[in-house]
Structures are given as C-alpha cells and as structure tokens.
Design brief:
heterodimer; A: about 325 residues; MetI-like fold; 2 domains; 14 helices; about 80% helix; disordered N terminus; disordered C terminus; B: about 290 residues; Rossmann fold; four-stranded antiparallel beta sheet; 10 strands; about 40% helix
Chain lengths: ~325, ~290
Amino acid sequence: MAQTQSQTPSRLRAALGRALTPSLVIGAGLVLAIVLFGLIAPFFVADPNAVDNAGMHGPSAQNLLGTTQTGQDVLAQLAWATRGSLLVGVIVAFLALFLSAFFGILGGYLGGWLDEVFSLFTNVVLILPGLPLMIVIGSYVQQRGLLLIAIILAITSWAASARVLRSQTLSIRNRDYVQAAKIAGEKPHRIIAVEILPNLLPVMSSGFVFALITAILGEAGLSFIGLGVNGTQTWGSMLFYAQNGQALTLGAWWWFVPPGLMIAVLGGGLSLINFSIDGIINPRLRNAPKQLKRVKQAGKQAEQEQAERAEGDTGPDERDETSGHDPDQEEVAV
Amino acid sequence: MSTLVVKELTKTYLLRDGLRFSRLEAVKAVDFELSPGRTVALVGQSGSGKSTIAKLIAQLETPTSGSITLNGKPVGRRGRSLAAYRDEVQMVFQDPFASLNPFHSIGHHLERPLRLHGKATKADAREKALALLERVNLTPAEAFIDRKPHELSGGQRQRVAIARALAPEPSVLVADEPVSMLDVSIRLGVLNLLARLQREENLALLYITHDLATARHFSDEILVMYRGDVVERGPSDDVILSPQAEFTKQLLVAAPEPAANPRFLAEAQRRGVPMPDHLAALEEPQ
C-alpha cells in the first residue's frame, strides 16, 4: 500500500511534466493574466460610464489609459469589457461543447437512423453562414441580452467540433476495449460516459478552447457593427464607440489599442494552449519541430564531413582509384 | 457447469460497393459443442470466419441463421437474459494493446466486471481484483492494480485480459487468438496459464488460432475452417497426424520446420549428430 501511495503522485508529476510545454506555459500565463484582470480589476476602477467635462486626453496619473471623448476612464471600461467578453466567451464555449457532444457522441455511438438525422442536422448547421445569420438575428431582436447573444453565437459555432467528435466516437466505439466492456455487461450510458468520454477529453478540450476564441471574436464583430449585447461592456463595444468617436482620425490610440490588444493576446494565448493540447492528442506533432531541426542538423553535419573528407586527403582517394584498377586487370587477364 | 451448443451457425454480411450489393458468407452452417473441461480449437487462415464465430458467441454480432444454446436454452439477446448469458460466457481478445482502455487503471478493468456480475461489492472489489491478479501470476498484485495499461508489457496485459474474462466466473471461455500478438518467448507462458485455469475451473474453452502446433498441444478437438466452412474436424491427434482435407495438409506443410533447413542438416552431419529418420529421408535427394 505504502509503495503504491508513494508512487502515484510522482507518476502524476511525471505526466504533468510531459504535458508542460513552453507554449502551454506561455499561453496559460497570458490567459490567466487576462482572466484575473477581468475578475479583479472591476472592483478597483472608477465608474466606467461616468462622464467628465475634461473630455478626451491621453494617459495620465489619474487616468492610466486616458479617457474617451466624453471623458470616461478607458482603464475602467477595459476592466468591465474584459469581464463581459470573457463571460460571453465562456457561456458560448460551454453551450457549444454541450451541443457538439450531444449530437456528435450520441449519434456516433448509437448509429443507425439517429446518426443519419444528427449528421444531416450537423451538416446543415455547419454550412449556415455564421456572421450573416448573427446579423440577421441580432437586428431582428430589439432587446439583445447577454444570454441571447451567447445562444446565437453557440448555435452557429458547435457544428464543426460535433463532426470531429462524431468521427472520433466512430473510431473508439469499435475498439476492443469498448467491445470488452459490452461483454463485461456495461450499460450503454456507462460505456459512453466511462469508457468513451475520457478518451475524447483532449479533443473536447481543444474544441472548447477553439469555441472560446471564435465566440470572443464573433461577439467583438457583432458589437463592432452595433449589434452586440445591450448595456454590457465588451471589447467589441469599446471598439464600436472608439470607431464612432473617430478615435483613429483623432489619433487617440489609448482608446482603441487596449481592447484590440486584449483580443489579440487572448486569442494568441488560447491558440498556444490549443497547440499543446494537439501535442498531447498526437505526440508526433509535439516532436515534429524538434525532429525537423534534428534532420536538418544531421544533413548539415553530413555535408560538412563530406566536404572535410574531399578537402583533407586527396592521397587516399588516388590510392583507392589505383587499387580499383587492379581487379579489373586481373579480370581481363583471366 | 454448462454446455454451449452451436448449431447451423451462419453469418452473412451484406457488402455495398456503390449501388451494387454483394454477400459475404463469413460463417456457413457451423456446428460444434463446448462442454466443461474440454478445449475445442478453431484453426484457419485470416478471413476464414474464426473471429466472426467468436463475436457471434460473445453476442457482439447477431447470427443470420442458426442457433446458439446454453444448457439447452437459446441465448438472450437483451436485458436480463443477456446478462445471465454474460455471466456464463466470456471472451479474451486477440490484441492486448487494444482490449484495455488506456484511460483506466488495471483495477478498474477487473472491479467493473466483478461488480456487474455480483461477484463483489464496492467494499471488497479491490480485494477480489487483487486475488484475480494473483491467479494470473501478476505478483505482487499491489504493484499492478493501480497501473495504467500502457505501463505493462503485452504478456502482462493479456494476463489482465484473461483475469477480466474470469471475473464473472464463467463456465465457457472464448479465446480469440490469445497469443498471436505476443512475443514468441512469452506465448507458451500465457497458453499454459490458460490451460491451468481451464483445469482449475473446469471451463469449456474455445481456442481460436492459426497455429496448428499449439492447437494440437492444448486442445481435445480441432476444427479446421476454410472460407467459412469447417473442412475437417476430429480429435486433435487424428487431424494432425492423418489429415484428410487438402487444406489441412497445406496448413501442416506450411509450418516451418527449422530442422529441415539444408544448412542445419550439413552442420548436424559434420558434428556427427544422429539424424531423425524423417529428416534423413529429406536429405537423400541431395
């Protein structure tokens, strides 16, 4: 007992160590910083909507990121916008994950006509043009709440990962260990939840991260054209007001750069996380850059050695040639 | 103890190639009987329908026609009667690298069937799983139970797979090429384990293989299959020593005999090793 107990944590640490790649550490660090900023900063900043007669001015001791045209503090707006954008992103990612798991895994495992119907539905949703649909629904509804926008974003973004999950499920359900679980007498719901789902976790988490990125970008796009959530600050709505306030022509970089940078950094961080998840799913991808480098180095080394040999000793080469002639002559003689 | 009887078992797959359909008769009207304490070997090349028979018996596939009866009762297709059937009939898969879930510990693979078949409660499942590991010679069991499948060798995994099949305390065991994916050096160990467990439990064993030599060694009766048909059957020694069907003869000739290598013969002669008669006869034409 004591032996196994002491072994388990070290094995866990070893597995963690293998999963920790530089890209994961950097990506997780960036995302964590932004999430903490969105969680904590709103408690410490001033009212983001408070108008000030001072008007627009650049960063100063009082307003660290300057103010907008109506004198609102940009830092305060950024703090609340971060919280709003992340909230939309997380809600959408969970909804999309649920939808894709439901249609992908259930259809893939149960097969038959249910799979046909689910696949057809998934394919139809997949070819729906996302942004135009969002615009149509967004402009049709008058009072756009956060949940409504989240649902619109979710129903336009789950289909791709549902297809991935379906094909993965199709491959896993025919593996011997699933057949063995059937023979052991496991019920279908337990086979899906206990035998299949854990093996889909890497694919699902990569889908989750991908949905998070698309949701935040999609929401920013909607808000930027003025069809975003009413009454909630997001990065997109900040950009929308900056555009309306002619921040670009006025050179007020402190107004539009922070939200834009936040979107870019979060997208980059999440992508880095996704790359390392890919590395966990397919270890060959993780080693690919390293191996490419090794192949190149080996090639260079071989070239170098060849060059050295060619330069260094011309003598032995000649001798080789002469010795090469002898057997020929012998053959002729024979 | 129970007897499993297979009668006129047929499985036909409908294949589709574009708009054209064709039939593949994987198993054609096969009969045999598995009785306690006896081993029946099913021998044949790849694609001869051996594994399809295993899947049909394990209820992973439904037969097109024919019947499988356990103690005279037809097998259950679903619900409680299927569960009762699974209590009695278990299977060991060919590939130990595919038959254990990479996400779960060895303990999970043994505790689940123990609990599903009412052989253990939540409290004593671990204890019973440890006992199972010891029965398949994975000792010390404590060192194995918490490991993941990828930390075990092929032979160790196949032992776990055998332990899992034994967990419900079945009376019929189907072993689908249990050693074909293992290193030659550990095959005999796994086969001897199966033979010992069969003796101890008085199991009815269906041993599926493409290797006539082990089939002769471990089984009482051999069925030779060729493209879905049983082309020859009988007591092991009869089939091996006086094969009747053309295909069985081909199978026997196809097995490599290292001693028949001319280089070996020359070396044996040089060292003055006495030559077995049938090899001496081989040597003569040279």
